[in-house]
Amino acid sequence: MALQVARQILLQQQHQQQLQPQQGTGLKSPKGSEKQPSLQVPVSVAMMTPQVITPQRMQQILQQQVLSPQQLQVLLQQQQALMLQQQLQEFYKKQQEQLHLQLLQQQHAGTQSKEQQQQAQRLAFQQQLMQVQQLQQQHLLNLQRQGLLTIQPGQTTLPLHSLTQGMIPAELQQLWKEVTNVKEENSSSNNSHRGLDLSSPQPPKNSLLNQHASTNGQYMSHSLKREGSTVDDHHHSHHSHPLYGHGVCKWPGCEAVFEDFQSFLKHLNNEHALDDRSTAQCRVQMQVVQQLELQLAKDKERLQAMMTHLHVKSTEPKPAPQPLNLVSNVTLSKTAPPEASPPLSLPQTPTTPTAPLTPLSQAYSVITPNSLHHSVGPMRRRYSDKYNMPISPDIVQNKEFYMNAEVRPPFTYASLIRQAILESPEKQLTLNEIYNWFTRMFAYFRRNAATWKNAVRHNLSLHKCFVRVENVKGAVWTVDELEFQKRRPQKISGSPALVKNIQTSLGYGPALSAAFQASMAENNIPLYTTASIGSPTLNSLANAIREEMNGAMDHGNSNGSDSSPGRSPLPAMHHIKEEPLDPEDHEGPLSLVMTANHSPDFGHHRDYDDDQGHDDML
DNA sequence: CATGGGTTAAACATCG
DNA sequence: CCGATGTTTAACCCAT
Fold this sequence. Notes:
Arc Repressor Mutant, subunit A; mainly alpha; 21 helices
């Protein structure tokens, strides 16, 4: 029955994941190959069959800025979705076990009805799960078909390499593009994919046709590969153009029929060239996608609710969100008892009554309009704090992002550990509590536990700043702030360059600032602004950048330090080749610093708390 | 090129 | 014996 099927699916997925090995564990990675570019591949990544990319790889992808914003977006979303699925699996398994247990217990008692009830629940759940999956697929498919996912090699070059290292460049790029209205018609030869280019308002004169002809032909989205007729297969062994299917032009509202791919292409280039109409239609389509995403989000939410409900035995009223205070933890009282024992550690903040999620985006928006205009912050004595609390600001502000996105936080283990400890009421944590903090705060650490846990332990013992204190109940770890700071100074993390850039690129300042403000001001993803399909990380990104900048500005390049460190040696991506980044542009966006002014922090709500027991889910 | 910090792996020792 | 907790050592990577 359905149940079996679903299980099957889950198992399969699980298996798949297992097959995805740790991808180069940091060492041995093929030396040279790291910087070998070659476009095309990123695409394959973005469109890769739903397979969970190892965190490292993801990280790498993000940091290397190989992908276009859209791609990143999609990737992120995919990962999100997959994560969810994984969690579902987990949950499902647990649920199964539980049920099984109960079943056994009740077997004798013959509590038929109860069992049935559960059975029903299970089924419902199952359905929900499938539904979500379907939605996700649909959504992805849609995106792919739109051609919105195609990339433009040229734009992968980001002005702010040095700057954004630890951050996600996607939105930045997007923003940058939007703001400057870049019209790069970089149709370099290696431009293997070309979709609608919203960023270039004016028709790319000549080459358009040729390009389409040649590039579209390569449009091969394996997942969509339609066997189709073999008629003109000899030409393009695969005419699986997203806009062409079953001899019909799939352009929204078109439906023109064509016998062969060629004529279709012609039609496409003639009828759906880059003009106002097409653009408009494209936008509409984007909205459609948005709607889908929204729906997906809603369904996810529902699922979430269901899960929570089912798992939280009767104790429905959740511990109200606690205003944790990462920043002013100095005076922090007793918040967030590390002891709460919530049922299930989901990556997503369980249905907070807050705003209705829009695809991933709002869930992330960490920035409130306020933060921009006024630094509310009662806290944060800028200078000293910065010094003291390296990661806090960033962490705080991007908390939600990191909690949900499987992105490796750009902080060193030491910083994180310290943060964890300082955050605790007693300023001390047991190893296990530290683990829990990691998993709680970072989606990234909900995976491959063996690795990072080892790292955590390693760091604890390695750094003098972490002091072990014997305790009645074992031992706890504390931070020796002095020691910690002692080793800080030398890590500026590219600040110098940053600052320089910042100062020299005032030209773009205003524009960018405006852009940021705008984007921040409205948490709702602008439906119309170019192709920024739900940009979850935008806000946090902006914030991060701002932070970074502030830091840089604050102490010149003398020390800053915050979020620098990290950047772990990401293993080489074997399947991905990066594209040679344009040595060109680099310096524009930096100016967005100007927006500066310390952002405050927000209350953090810790909606759930997983604790003891199992730290990791995989 | 050398160096130091950060990350990851892994071997080992303790302890409950 | 096992697993969690700590310590160490080594190899890499990367930025300086």
